[in-house]
Specification:
homodimer, alpha/beta, 4-stranded parallel sheet, 19 helices, globular
Chain lengths: 424, 424
């Protein structure tokens, strides 16, 4: 079916036929997983709309921004300081991808033993399926894992790539390296945009990004209620869209949704029947449209009440301290905030173990499902430590390794159901 | 069969029965691969002896050193500056392992999708098979790859582990971080040994380690001769043993072997029949007893004339600059030398591409076999760039991914034979 956006997609050099196929599959998948839910919040209509226009209206907005002279910066990781991009008047969008469609193309340049997320973004590029990638003036990678670090070198043959170095420990020399990298990034963004970042710009953008984190923190607090007032799928979608949507509009819309949620919590209404097991997810990020595991869990007499992941609390837990008077102090505040990220790229990464146990206790979950993408060594290896920490706290854990294919759905469902049964 | 070393191994808490099995298999494997060769240098007898006593006499020497108050430091990576360990009067030994025997134990704590080298050293520890690990007062890991970085966290539950952070780029801030890490390592080694490193000690150890590198450089130059005067297997063994043996004795013995080799080169004698294809290996290190691929290649009308790997030129190409007057200057020289390592952990890593092409040209090879351990993301992903660089230079490349199992030997042999045929 021809779309009103065909001309735009054609200009972005997408493979129109394959792209139409992608949107059709995505629409069907979304319908099955999302529109089938009962008792959804009215506020979710906005998210449904944004998702339905993810390659349409949102791309049109990016193109309009570009036409007005703005630059678009794409990222794959919560380590890239959005505050700096926004302060320079640019737009930042997340490029992590959760679909398998470009896999065959990706495997022409990447080993088969590469995680699905990396294959997905490389595949989207090579198969000409992602209007976000094609809208970017700069794509910012980072060194959080071997797979991405080396994939960016290949990706750079196709797109304008800049890579930030992320330290692997948290000593003083690591903070120095990271501060130097933040400074290098600031210069790069200033050069890209032609805008020198002033203290006032950065103060505003720090506040703006913090406001989005605050509203997501509020969402997380409301989700902790018993009975749970929103499905894990819907909460995940909100977190996913936070990486793509205009931050001011998104924050306002989610604030309204939280008002509605608050009413629901006050009224004692929930979305799951009594006896539904409260579980938490922990591990790798789930990028759009990777809703496989939450859907399996929530079809197994359980509900997800929290996501300890980059598309989850790892992105929202810490704020940049506000109130700094000078640009230098603001940069220091940014440096400090991002150094607190508890990514498995750090060694050791005991903060993450503490954060998971605390989160599981605060949310009153019956168990944790640890999710690692196959071939994601940092998270799949850290699962061993997570299980030990949770076990010491008396909280059972199920470790799952999977990818974006649907081949293992039945097998995963059997394992999840057995785990849910066990937690009763 | 009881060994004269049983008592020593028992004191080291080895699993004697399993260890006896390991030595029997190792002896058989060595016999098949090494002792079957024709026209070996007389100097190889020393290497045969050292290998036959790898868990015997060499361990006895380490135990004697410990009894005299010396400390033993184990390492897994060419980034650990041996100069500092030796200057503090300690002994350094390489712990990388090339056998599959402890795999089942390792997979109890590591994901199956972990490279064979990591599974091997973890397995050796858990299965109580490695007298080197058990002799160590400190085991030094590093952050060169996700797999090792996270495995050390688990390994630290069983052995005294210290981890050095390796930067991922080569800018000024990376050198600063690395210098800070070298300083932290020096303090750690001084504390371990109780010996404060003086300028004279470090000057001597820099010279000593350089001397070992120089003799291995000489070996590499002699191997470049046509016809090739030494098998790739024998040269690999020499490089492997350089990580275990006493450095002074080793250098003297390899110097004698090079004298013999020089005579052979002068006389125009070679070890392979006319028409044998000259090939080069590039990629992951091959730790003892991982001789699988060189043996396959050298049973396929080809000979290996160089190894671009950590157990190869990556460990010997660069010297620490000598002649510094002060301790600080010597540390700077060490920092600079190790920053030149062209490990795939760096991004970008174009030096490696240049080094490979130069080496292939200098050695006059017909082709390069790129060897990556399965699940080693840095090297398996960089293979794409290596192939491009070699292709631009008109040199064919065969990319192989394998592990320590023997299951794929016939399949590899077929691929290698086809590649050798193609290079003619």
């Amino acid at each position: 079916m021809p779309s009103a956006y065909d001309q735009m997609w054609e200009k972005l050099n997408l493979d129109l036929e394959a792209h139409e196929g992608l949107l059709a599959v995505l629409g069907k998948f979304y319908g099955d997983i999302y529109m089938s839910q009962q008792g959804r919040l009215k506020g979710m209509e906005y998210l449904d709309f944004v998702l339905s226009e993810v390659h349409g209206l949102r791309i049109k907005e990016l193109q309009d921004a570009k036409a007005s002279g703005k630059k678009v910066v794409g990222t794959f990781c919560v380590f890239v300081p959005e505050e700096i991009v926004l302060a320079a008047g640019a737009v930042q969008v997340g490029l992590c991808a959760g679909a398998e469609i470009g896999k065959a193309e990706a495997e022409k340049v990447l080993p088969r033993n590469t995680c699905a997320l990396i294959k997905s973004f490389v595949g989207f590029k090579l198969a000409k399926l992602c209007p976000f990638i094609e809208s970017c003036d700069l794509i910012v990678g980072e060194t959080t894992c071997d797979g991405k670090k080396k994939a960016y070198e290949i990706f750079a043959e196709y797109s304008p790539v800049y890579v930030m170095e992320i330290p692997q420990m948290k000593a003083a020399c690591d903070r120095e390296l990271w501060k130097s990298e933040v400074g290098r990034f600031k210069s790069t963004v200033e050069e890209l945009t032609g805008n020198k970042i002033a203290a006032g710009d950065l103060r505003d953008s720090i506040h703006l990004v913090n406001e989005r984190r605050r509203v997501l923190q509020r969402l997380n607090r409301l989700r902790a209620a018993v009975p749970v007032p929103i499905s894990g799928r819907d909460a995940l979608l909100i977190n996913q869209i936070s990486f793509y949507d205009d931050p001011v509009r998104f924050t306002a819309k989610i604030s309204e949704l939280c008002d509605e949620l608050e009413q629901r919590v006050k009224s004692g209404a929930g979305i799951a029947p009594d006896g539904t097991a409260r579980l938490m997810l922990s591990g790798c990020p789930m990028a759009v449209p990777n809703w496989k595991l939450p859907y399996i869990i929530e079809s197994s007499r359980a509900v997800v009440v929290g996501e300890e992941s980059c598309i989850g609390t790892r992105n929202t837990r810490d704020l940049v301290q506000e109130g700094s008077a000078t640009l230098d102090d603001m940069i220091d505040a940014i440096v400090d905030r991002y150094m607190r990220i508890d990514c498995a790229c750090f060694t050791p990464n005991t903060e993450r173990l503490d954060n998971i146990v605390n989160m599981a206790r605060e949310l009153g979950v019956k168990g944790v499902i640890h999710y690692a993408l196959s071939f994601c060594q940092p998270y799949s290896m850290e699962a061993y430590k997570v299980e030990k920490a949770l076990s010491a706290a008396g909280i059972p854990m199920l470790a799952i390794e999977t990818d974006y294919s649907m081949e293992d759905v039945e097998q995963l469902k059997t394992r999840v159901e057995a785990f849910v049964e066990m937690t009763r």
